[in-house]
Amino acid sequence: MYRAGSSIQEHAVEFVQKGGVLHFQWFTGVTMKLVRFLMKLTNETVTIELKNGTVVHGTISGVDISMNTHLKVVKMTVKGKNPTSLDSLSIRGNNIRYYILPDSLNLDTLLIDDSPKQKVKAGSAAAGGAAAAKGRGRGGRGRGRGRGRP
């Protein structure tokens, strides 16, 4: 089981908060956002435990950036009730406590970070472009009335 915010030694994974975003780091030293990893699990059969105790078993059809998970061919067991079969189910990301992944899942191929890196343009400052590099702040030339006139 993988739980956000905890360190799990038997799976050699550590969860780290960097700039308000949850990352996890495997024993290989590879680090990536947890949600990016989950987005690669399309067509994998998983078990998901929700915060209210409901257990959902199904095949992932997609995970979005908010960790909302869409499943197909689902068996849902509400805590204390009989299981229910559903064709599809969408789960809001903040209601998920655990993703229980199959043992047969090849983690090495999923952990390759193949997302394109954003290139930083040379010669421009962080937000203000060339004007910020010249110490003019956000405005540059022509901002405001009556400045520099006799």
Automatic annotation (TrEMBL):
Basic residues: compositionally biased ranges: 135-150
Query: In which broad location class does this protein mainly occur, judging by the first location in its UniProt entry?
Result: nucleus
Cross-referenced InterPro entries, in alphabetical order?
LSm4/Sm_D1/D3, LSM_dom_sf, Sm, Sm_D1, Sm_dom_euk/arc
Question: Which UniProt keywords are given for this protein, alphabetically ordered?
Answer: mRNA processing, mRNA splicing, Nucleus, Repeat, Ribonucleoprotein
**Gene Ontology MF terms:** RNA binding
Q: Where is this region: Disordered?
A: 122-150
Low complexity biased stretches: 122-134
Give the family, as the similarity comment puts it: Belongs to the snRNP core protein family.
What is the protein name stated in its UniProt record?
Small nuclear ribonucleoprotein Sm D1
Phylogenetic placement of the source organism: Eukaryota, Sar, Stramenopiles, Oomycota, Saprolegniomycetes
